[in-house]
Amino acid sequence: MGFVSKQLDDKFYLEGDLRISLREKIFREVISNLIVHREYINASPTVLTIFKDRVEVVNANNPNVLGKISPEHFSPYPKNPVIAKFFMQLGRFDELGSGIINVNKYLPLYIKGASPTFEEEVNTFRTIIPLEPTMQDGELNGELNGELNGGLNGQLNEPIIILIKKITEYPGIQAKELAKQLNRPFSTIDKQIRTLISKQLVIHKGSRKTGGYYRVNH
Fold first, then answer.
1. Residue 37 is part of which domain span?
2. pTM of the model
3. pLDDT tens-digit readout, 124-171
4. Domain containing residue 187: CATH number
């Protein structure tokens, strides 16, 4: 988890009134599964590789059913039940099958439109976590521009358009996180957000300390 946190950004997200780490939610499940479901009589190493566009994990495996696994079509199978119970006691593992369910739940919030791949192969279990949105930037720009009313797009400069795109992509994001992701001074982000609020394109929800910004759908 330390390696993952050094290499991958976290994304701002509120679950109810509580801020949670999407990166933690996703990769805690992935890495717990590496330990709990590994085939330990197989000497091949576990490999977690972070590419530019994906994280790929390959683990020694004794397959129950070959092929891809989806939340709708799988039956949890305890490959190492003693280890699974031990991890449950540590609070590092919820229940059998929770990994696939939780990764499918939180990944589209972490990477817009992304879908994980879980596949049982003959001797390995392969997990692929995309790091790029399914919707490409051009499509997102087109969607955004089409929704802006009455030629407002012509009144907004490119940095502000990029800012509203980021808010659209990550609802509830805070100004300090926007400044970090866009590599702009906080004062600049604050001024640009005020412009968007004045044009009724963005609103702030929640408290001053924990709340964030949301796109207004017209």
1. 2-130
2. 0.60
3. 999 999 988 755 444 555 555 554 544 455 567 778 888 888 888 788
4. 1.10.10.10
